[in-house]
Amino acid sequence: MRPYAQYCPIAKAAEVLGDRWSLLIVREMVSGSHRFNELARGLPGISRALLSKRLQQLQRVGVIASSKQGYELTPAGEELKPLIFGLAEWGAKWAFAEPMPEELDPDLLLWWIHRGIDPDQRPDKRVVIEFEFSDHDHRFWLVVEPDDVSVCVTPPGIETDVLVSSTLPTMYRVWLGREELYDAMRDDRVRLSGTPSMVRALPRWLEFSPVAGYVREARDPVPTQ
Fold it and tell me: Which regions of the chain does DSSP assign to beta strands (E)?
């Protein structure tokens, strides 16, 4: 980014974080991604060359550092967490309308969901969750192990335990907190079928998006006294 040539901490911060994708790279790292391929998976619109360039820039200014896992936030990067979630709160309140078709990527949604399976709620055996979107030709699978969750875009060759049927916009809204899962299930806009015990357990496994709380708060503001 071209410098603003202003001796001001806001201008200096904007020079560090104002390049396209930089804040979203930090968002992904705050959400638990560390390896290059994980970051690329969470940012499907960025080329690998540009991602590499942005990572180098963020390293150079001291926001991230190389680690055995790939990349990690430095103390300066860790202190960006309130900023990231502050932007989420502001965006949920003032800039988060209904999704546009071009904003709905099933691969990205499944990547988000796979990160949101609560480690403390995972079953003690392998469970396969299949996702069927009526407005999308492709199906997706999550293979949930006691110590890992993986995303499959081809049949994993294992019997499905739970089938989640919905539309892509509905699942986005549910995941991000614009509507509640049980409301969508009651209205038959999200359907769970399969092994009864797994169908009952699945909603408990989902932590939903880290920003869902802000979206719910903006959706249902607390009345002022």
Answer: 64-67, 70-73, 127-133, 139-145, 148-152, 162-166, 191-194
Alpha-carbon dihedral sign for residues 214, 215, 217, 221: positive
The length of the chain, given as a count of residues? 225
**How many whole angstroms separate alpha carbon 179 and alpha carbon 136?**
21
Q: Are strands 148-152 and 139-145 parallel, antiparallel or unpaired?
A: antiparallel
Q: Write the DSSP assignment of 16-48 as a string of letters.
A: HH-STTHHHHHHHHHTT--SHHHHHHH-TTS-H
Q: 155-200: per-residue pLDDT in tens?
A: 999 999 999 999 999 999 999 999 999 999 999 999 999 999 999 9
Chain centroid to Cα 137, Å, comes to 22
The backbone region for 35, taken as left when phi is positive above 0, alpha when psi lies in -120 to 50, beta otherwise, is beta
The model carries a pTM of 0.92
Among the listed residues 94, 111, 188, 176, the one whose alpha carbon sits nearest the alpha carbon of residue 149: 111
End-to-end, the C-alpha distance of the chain in Å comes to 46
Mean pLDDT by 10-residue block, N- to C-terminus, for the chain (225 residues)? Answer: 89 93 97 96 96 97 95 97 97 94 96 94 93 94 95 95 97 96 97 95 94 94 68
Q: What is the DSSP string of 96-108?
A: --SPPGGG--HHH
Place of tokens 């081809």: 154
10 Å CB burial of residue 34 (0-12, 13-18, 19+) is middle
